[in-house]
Amino acid sequence: MFYVNGQVGTNHPLLKTAKNILIGSRSNLQSVGLIVLLVSKAASYNPREYTLDQHDSGVLYAQRALAEIVEMKRTGHLIHKTMANLQDKQKHGEKFKDLLCGNKIVLLTANNEIKRHYDWENENNLGKLGSNEFLGQGKDEWVLRTMLTSGSLLAKGCQAAMKLSNRGEELEREAYKLGGHLAMIWQLYLDVKDFFTHPNSYSLVGAPVTLAIWEYPTIYGHILEAKLEKKEVEFKPLYYAVMGTRCFEYLRQLLDEELVAVLQCCEKFPVEEARVALQKMAISVHSEAVQYMPDK
């Protein structure tokens, strides 16, 4: 806590991430451990296969442990992404030492590729995900980036929970798909929120920018020019360029597709209470994301 307090006022990305982890959305979908537990409960298990000291409240203790591991890895990944670029020491002035301290915290606390249509649901998820063929392919690039960052972790966490409860390969695959689609709709919400609430520091590989560049490749010129001149990207002009495209029509469509996929995947799980909880989370995330976007 001493080190984190030292970061107050420095605008280190670590603070923004810490706030998101602690507060998040009304949906609580930011907790991947919770999702793994809910999917575990929604799938149920045969209590006759386990002793009384191996399960409680509809979840195996092994599944609880798995959920904790998945949560820890996700949090570590989020923190690791907040490394600040300190190449230009003079630009940061007096804040350089504090930002450097923040980077050290990131390194101590924690440890992107981009084909034809990317069919993540049916690929061998125990092998290498995707390929560079998806670079510049709009939705497919964004989907792969999401799977390589948060999607694969949640999808495989849900899949592993089914394996622990001996639910069979079919439900393992459905759990993998459910976890993946939950990660997709959550990342869409985060990307849209980031774009509209931080117009001077949003992600350059988030869904709005990625889809806008796919539709109008010339928009990439805003980023390329900054790279060639070794300057920081001017976010405001890029923001207005993105707003001038139809990317939000595509985002609405993608949000709708992911919501339908989550709702359909949930129907494969027998325990209604947990299943409905997952569906309500997805509906809430969808609603929150739409609220940030401009009217049609």
TrEMBL record:
The processes (GO biological process) annotated in the record are:
isoprenoid biosynthetic process; ubiquinone biosynthetic process
Question: How is this protein annotated for GO cellular component?
Answer: mitochondrion; transferase complex
Any one Gene Ontology MF annotation carried by this entry is: prenyltransferase activity
Q: What is this protein called?
A: (apollo) hypothetical protein
Q: What is the lineage of its organism?
A: Eukaryota, Metazoa, Ecdysozoa, Arthropoda, Hexapoda
